[in-house]
Amino acid sequence: MSFTLAIVGRPNVGKSTLFNRLVGRRLALVDDQPGVTRDLREGDARLGDLRFVVIDSAGLEMVEDGSLQGRMRRLTERAVDESDICLFVIDARIGVTAADEYFADILRKRAKHVILAANKAEGAAGEAGAAEGWSLGLGEPIQISAEHGEGMEDLYRVLKPLS
Ligand code: GDP
Ligand code: MG
C-alpha cells in the first residue's frame, strides 16, 4: 500500500531540499502534474523499495510580511489533511524555536502520524539542536542531512512499517 507524506515545518529548515532528494530526477514532471495547487508541490518519491507521494509546502518562501504565520498555519493544515504521514522538519543547527512549538501543537492535534526529523545534522554541529527535538513530544528526532543525503536509512526504517 502506498501513502502520502507531507513535509512540514517553518521556512528554511530544508523541506524543499528533502523534497527534491526524495523525488530525484522526476522533479521536472512535478509542475506539470494536474491537480497541483500553487502552494503545495507534489511529487512521486522513492526511498529504497518505498514508493509514495510527497508534498512540500512550497509557497512559504514567497511571504516575508506579517501574514507569514497565518499562511504557514493554513498551508500546514492543508498539507496535513491531504497526507497520511507528516514529516515535521526542524533545523538541528538552530534547535527548537517558538515557531517549531507552534507547529508541533497543530500536528499533534491534526495529523494522523507525525515523524520528527532534525535536518542539517551532518557533522557534529547539529547534535545539541537535534536532541532539543525531544521536547516537542513527537518521539525521537531522526537526524538527517537532506543536502548530503545522510540519515535516509533511518527515515526508511521509520516509514517502512507505516507503508
Ligand atoms: P525550506 O524553506 O524549508 O524549503 O528550506 P530549503 O530546502 O529551501 O533550504 C533552506 C536552506 O538550508 C538552503 O540554503 C539549503 O541549502 C539549506 N539546507 C537544506 N538542507 C540542508 C542540510 O542538510 N544541511 C545544511 N547544512 N544545509 C541545508
Ligand atoms: Mg521550501
Question: What report would you give on this structure?
Answer:
It comes from Paracoccus alkenifer. GTP 1 binds at residues 9-16, 56-60, 119-122. Associates with the 50S ribosomal subunit. Residues 3-163 form the EngA-type G domain. With 163 residues, the chain is an alpha/beta fold. It contains 6 helices and 6 strands; from the N terminus they run βααββαβαβαβα. Strands 2-3-1-4-5-6 form a 6-stranded mixed β-sheet, with helices on both faces. Helix 4 links the parallel strand 4 (85-91) and strand 5. Helix 3 (68-81) runs parallel beside helix 4. The site of guanosine-5'-diphosphate has 15 residues, from helix 1.
How would you summarize the topology of this molecule?
Layout lengths: L3 E5 L6 H9 L3 H4 L9 E8 L2 E8 L10 H14 L3 E7 L6 H13 L3 E6 L7 H6 L9 E2 L8 H8 L4
Parallel strand pairs: 1-3, 1-4, 4-5, 5-6
Antiparallel strand pairs: 2-3
Helix pairs in contact: 3-4
Radius of gyration: 15 Å
- Give the strand line-up of the largest sheet: 2-3-1-4-5-6
Shape: globular
Helical element count? Answer: 6
What ligand species are in this complex? guanosine-5'-diphosphate, magnesium ion
